[in-house]
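Data availability (excerpt). The following record was deposited with the supplementary files.
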Amino acid sequence: MRSFSWGCLLVLALAGTAGAHASLRYPPPRSDANKQGPCGVSGSTRGSNVTAFDPGTTITVVWDETVDHPGHFRLSFDDDGNDFQNPSTPDDNFPTTIMEPIADKSGGRYEQQITLPSIECNNCTLQLIQVMTTVVPYNSFYFQCADITLVPGGGSGIPPDEVSDASGCSAGGGGGTGWLVLAIGGLALLRLRHAKRPRARRCHPR
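Predicted structure:
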């Protein structure tokens, strides 16, 4: 099993408390921000982290819910920019919507297959939105966007074997970061006990 550095363990353990409530892993997100629509931060623009796919490809979108909320998720696609609308009722079905709703499963890793449109575009965006409540009208969301292109020969849409977090540390599936906190605590305790253990005296003949 691959070993983690202490720095990676600390980054991953803090991700659930200081990071996003829902965080895209694949395709990689434009940024880690997710508080304001449509893509996490007000005035968000297309970045340099762009993923290419073949038109009409079925891809697997991967994200982590680090802070659980009752509600559901939606995935939307814009072929030119990020002009997304917020849902207001359970029956909202905008032209940009690809998959809705995706039921909340109480945190952890999500993997959802979607089929991208059979068009070519160089300024297209995939949006993940977390609807935090089932009360109508909806008024509480978290947002993330992935900048993508649809071009012939772009890509198959299969995620890497290991989807990594922004720190470069491997972030496997599972139910959140609690196990990492326990692991750090356990390792710290072992190191503390080892440091306090009296060293055996060696006798040297005179």
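Summary of structural features: The mean pLDDT is 76.
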